[in-house]
Amino acid sequence: QVQLVESGGGLVQAGGSLRLSCAVSGRAFSSYPVGWYRQAPGKEREFVANINPDGGSTFYRDSVKDRFTISRDNAKNTVYLQMNSLKPEDTAIYYCSWEGIWGQGTQVTVSS
User: Fold this and answer.
1) pLDDT category, 49, cuts 50, 70, 90?
2) Among residues 26, 20, 13, 25, which one has the least CA distance to residue 49?
3) Using only C-alpha atoms, what is the Rg of the chain?
4) In whole angstroms, what is the distance from residue 3 CA to residue 55 CA?
5) pLDDT attached to residue 15
């Protein structure tokens, strides 16, 4: 059974950085795109970024462009989200998604 496990969340001050990781147990990891999403309290889940199978193409929501970077290591079945210049409005539970499967999420809290 495929599992996605996110890690790397935490509490950080505004302007700080965090690096999220998502480990995927699926054998076909390198064949499919992977995405990061987030859900803030009282809000719907929203798209953050995604990356194509070979890592050569990425796409971001406007509010995180130039601050967040998505990458993947297909040898390790892992996708990353480097988050810089964090803002309080980035506070949310961050989820990765691969082939319709979701991880349990990791909490990111940015204090002002």
Assistant:
1) very high
2) 20
3) 13
4) 21
5) 98
